[in-house]
Amino acid sequence: MMTPAPRPSEGPDALSLVVVSLLKGVVYREESSALWQSLLQLQARVRDQVSVLGLRLMLDESEGHAFLKQRSEAEGGAELPRLIARRQLGYGLSLLLALLRKKLADADAAAGGSRLVLRRHELQELVRLFLPEGTNEVRWVERVNQDIERAVEMGFLRRLGEEEDTFEVRRILKAFVDAQWLEGFEQRLAAYRAQLVEKQQGGAE
């Protein structure tokens, strides 16, 4: 009688697989149900393992994603070299992500958490509202497309199938741009617009 192969959550290398996957990036329930189940069953051990590296496990079961976050100095412990690099975002990308987070919040309120899918031209139109007067249209479209590609690389947008112009706004964005941040959304957008105008004027000099 053959012995059934152990499920991923029970195998001897399950903990290593989960930790390494988290160190490489975000773990999504929808992309690997076996890995996700291992994470849920081993999460206490995972937290212990990553804490040695100065990291915290950020696990959201309802949204179906998990990632590692650098422990802040305020949380105590010795100061360690950073494993999770801080990302410097340009004005355009910051604006795009802020607008997408607001769009995601509106979609949640209207449809109870359904997927948010947008075409490339819809992403461009979101940003167009904050386009300074006199902007070169061709260069502007190029910059927005670069910001879209950067958002894809960072995991906040995902292309659907082979469609180059259709994207899903990934819910991991909620973990990076939270509800408290959105409270000052209008003020932040005004600041972004002022920065974009200033940057454009500076480039024209």
Overview of the molecule:
- With 205 residues, the chain is mainly alpha-helical.
- The chain folds into two domains: 14-75, no CATH class; 91-204, Arc Repressor Mutant, subunit A (Orthogonal Bundle), CATH 1.10.10.
- Helix content is 52%, strand content 12%.
- It is built from eight helices and six strands.
- Strands 1-3-2 form a three-stranded antiparallel sheet. A three-stranded antiparallel sheet has the order 4-6-5.
- A hairpin with a 4-residue loop joins strand 2 and strand 3.
- Helix 1 packs across helix 2 (33-51), helix 3 crosses helix 5 (137-153) and helix 4 (120-128) crosses helix 5 (137-153).
- The longest helix has 21 residues, at 91-111.
- The protein is elongated.
- The termini are far apart.
What's the total count of β strands?
6
* Element-by-element helix/strand order: HEHEEHEHHEEHHH
Structural class computed from helices and strand pairing: mainly alpha
N-end to C-end Cα span? 80 Å
| Mean pLDDT figure | 78
CATH fold description of the largest domain: Arc Repressor Mutant, subunit A
Radius of gyration: 20 Å
Q: State the name of the first-level CATH class of the largest domain.
A: Mainly Alpha
Q: What proportion of the residues form beta strands (DSSP E)?
A: 5-15%
Query: Which architecture name of the largest domain does CATH use?
Result: Orthogonal Bundle
Helix proportion = 40-55%
Overall number of structural domains: 2
Low-confidence stretches: 1-8, 80-84
Can you list the strand order of the major beta sheet? 1-3-2
The largest sheet, given as strand count, sense and whether it forms a barrel, is: 3 strands, antiparallel
- Give the overall silhouette: elongated
- Alpha plus pi helix count: 8
The CATH superfamily of the largest domain bears the name: Winged helix-like DNA-binding domain superfamily/Winged helix DNA-binding domain
